[in-house]
Amino acid sequence: MAVTLKDIAEKVGVTESTVSRVLNGIPKASKETREEIFRVAAELGYKPNQIARSLVTKKTHTIGLIISDLSNTYFARVASGIEKIASKYDYSLIISTTGGDEKEELKYINLLKEKQVDGILFASGRMPASCKNLLKETEIPTVVVAREVEEDLPSVHIDNIKESYNAVKYLINSGHHNIAMISGNKDDKESGFYRIQGYKQALKDNGLKIRDDLIVEGDFKLQSGIEAMEEILKSDYSITAVFAASDQMGVGAIKAIKKAGLKVPDDISVIGFDNNIISLASDPELTTVSQPEEELGWHSMEMLYQVMEGRDLKERKIYLPCEIIERESVRNI
Amino acid sequence: MAVTLKDIAEKVGVTESTVSRVLNGIPKASKETREEIFRVAAELGYKPNQIARSLVTKKTHTIGLIISDLSNTYFARVASGIEKIASKYDYSLIISTTGGDEKEELKYINLLKEKQVDGILFASGRMPASCKNLLKETEIPTVVVAREVEEDLPSVHIDNIKESYNAVKYLINSGHHNIAMISGNKDDKESGFYRIQGYKQALKDNGLKIRDDLIVEGDFKLQSGIEAMEEILKSDYSITAVFAASDQMGVGAIKAIKKAGLKVPDDISVIGFDNNIISLASDPELTTVSQPEEELGWHSMEMLYQVMEGRDLKERKIYLPCEIIERESVRNI
DNA sequence: CAATTTTAGTCAAACGCTTGACTAATTAAA
DNA sequence: TTTAATTAGTCAAGCGTTTGACTAAAATTG
């Protein structure tokens, strides 16, 4: 049987309340009893039962993270960032993965509610209305991570439009005028979608023509990058650069270009997105825009902490900047 | 205020116990009351308070995962595997990262105990005696993942000696006799250490000489692979193959070899370890031994489930097999 | 020195649920 | 028709803490 307050109380000869207060540092005891209580507690190896404590305090010091997929480095790194800050504030982290499925999301919101978590971090799907409503109904403080979300809920993300705009601008500034794009899933209303927008806007603002056959859709994975690049190469050999919406597709593109007998960056430049470790593994090394995954985690958890503490947020929507990492795959012409 | 059993009980006109039993599917009520209770529960949006429930049942349906580092793909994938099985059994997962630090490990074991988790999965450092004792003292079912551990505690891992033996054997079978190794940290008594053993054993069993200057130590990261390879190249140009204890070091090696004006695999073959995505990104693609990370997660959680259910384990120590993935970086001579 | 404040506690309720023991009424069996 | 068994509940204790209200003794103040 686990040691309880009662055991200590009996042994010392005081009531549980006294023991409780002493152990919580409330100075309502003589020096002697205090010392005796600490002594006995240590001797018995007392560990407070947080469940019992939570029942009365209505705080679990636990937060729930609803996330798509831990085996994806991107999400794993934001989870890692979250965990670090949570731990700093003495919060535990319950992680639930959903694969972006709405049913799962709903299920886990309910579960977390039942577990009485003090807050929820949502880094999963596109946050359907059902989730938003449920979240609102449960009244648990929530912040959304790395996902676009209309209105109300506090959130932290990167500005996909702006950052891909910058990537393409970088290509343009390097003298490229014929720029293809390998996009992610076009219709997910998320990064895949927004990055195309940034690409188009950059072309437009610089008087370049948007050619739809030069935007080919991948699925963010390496193989799709190879296939997409092959298709681009088929349709138009005159391009001098390509913007890939992920590093995996970027290195896929490099592979395809090399296989076609062309050189990177001499014949075709490529820029990726993510700054995944694989951008360093490819040959040539991939120039890319780095996403601050860990920082996304940090900020979201800091933000959640603020709202759990009942403080007002200065900003309810935070955009973290990305950075272009110049390596070997883009040539100045 | 949250809806409680009492609210339902009052509204229906029965006692809390009846409501409790009905909601838990214990058939001690008439069809009418049962239906009425479900109706009212739904109407009020009742969600059971698991904290209160846990206090009496002494089960939290939560398990704790103590892990080194989530931003490391290897551990992230193990965690992902664990989460999937945990979720299958309706267990929640509290994740704590330690960076392999013993103090942190101890801290989290205590914390998890206080949170009354039903079980612990330990995938962190080398499991110092202090942890083992604490774990034993807390009496929480525990299984160790991906870490060597002497005796008692159930565990699941890969056999590092055997698998690296096989990798080197594969090189030997391909006709190589002069094989260097880029190892991980030599003295960690973990994978770094054991993989060297496997390498040595394979050489020995095949009548090849072990030359200590051909084993150079890295830290599993890409950059260290480059440096290690440069050193090897300096000391001996006659080698025809190198075994890298990680894929990152493997692609580092490839980079260094290419920079030295040599070709992979024509001049020097290289084999890695992990089957990380970067093995696909490199040029040439890296032949490697794939580790079953997700499966490590699955099995450990399945095992933990068995012991939480009080069942006896058929095997207390499970080794999962790896597989050699043949790609482009090894030549047959 | 009486009045007040402080100190060092005690007592009991409460948090929301489960569960064993009990009861009254109904149904089935003999 | 009496007895036994089943059904549909109720009652109250208990899980391990916290916490507001209370009290008796000691210390401080005017």
TrEMBL record, chains A, B:
<dbReference type="InterPro" id="IPR000843">
    <property type="entry name" value="HTH_LacI"/>
</dbReference>
<keyword id="KW-0238">DNA-binding</keyword>
<keyword id="KW-0804">Transcription</keyword>
<dbReference type="InterPro" id="IPR001761">
    <property type="entry name" value="Peripla_BP/Lac1_sug-bd_dom"/>
</dbReference>
<dbReference type="Pfam" id="PF00532">
    <property type="entry name" value="Peripla_BP_1"/>
</dbReference>
<keyword id="KW-0805">Transcription regulation</keyword>
<protein>
    <submittedName>
        <fullName>Transcriptional regulator, LacI family</fullName>
    </submittedName>
</protein>
<dbReference type="InterPro" id="IPR028082">
    <property type="entry name" value="Peripla_BP_I"/>
</dbReference>
<feature type="domain" description="HTH lacI-type">
    <location>
        <begin position="3"/>
        <end position="57"/>
    </location>
</feature>
<dbReference type="GO" id="GO:0000976">
    <property type="term" value="F:transcription cis-regulatory region binding"/>
</dbReference>
<dbReference type="InterPro" id="IPR010982">
    <property type="entry name" value="Lambda_DNA-bd_dom_sf"/>
</dbReference>
<dbReference type="GO" id="GO:0003700">
    <property type="term" value="F:DNA-binding transcription factor activity"/>
</dbReference>
<dbReference type="Pfam" id="PF00356">
    <property type="entry name" value="LacI"/>
</dbReference>
